[in-house]
Amino acid sequence: MRKIITVIPASGVGSRMNAPLPKQYLKLQGKTILEHTLNIFLEHPNIQKIIVAVSETDQYYPELSVLNSPKIQIVFGGETRADSVFNAIKVIDEDAWVLVHDAARPCLKRSDLDKLLQVQEPSGAILATPAIDTMKRASGNKIVATEDRSTLWHALTPQFFPVNALKHAIKNALEQGYTITDEASAMEMSGYTPQLITGRSDNLKITRPEDLALAEFYLTHYMEN
Question: Which superkingdom (predicted)?
């Protein structure tokens, strides 16, 4: 039995939402987006702990009673997502596997999570969906090439890795000034080849105002079915 810990980086402000508060605190069905996301992991029997990285200036998180769960630990995040994830995994001092999941992905299905948790390879794995749209490479706003979409995937979360490997990978990438767009990119820079696990396309990340209505639809549909 592996020890499995979830890390939720939740220190961003979500500027593209044009909202008066960070997007993880916007409400869907009477709960904040962050509450919906946390409940996915709180209800899973194989996840022992959840570490939430919040901003030091965050005035909203103390109001969430769900964060009082003994299963949840709060840490302060950093300037970037990678800094926040690194601050969270630094407090893990045991041999464990870590799931990193976006705070603004409240529609993750248990079936996808269970598929990911079956991975044993030391390179870890991520949820992803194959690209189905025609993909263009651009220079500014001009097309310079059409990419072969058969080899392209959209990276999702959670992303699942041995914590010590991820800790060293992010540390090395940050020290060398690499741009880390997700945890898998840090692992790739350290020579790992994470596995792609096909996930559901409705595991959307709420980024723009129109995403709220879509997430509301998905959550309502799940409740009804």
Answer: Bacteria
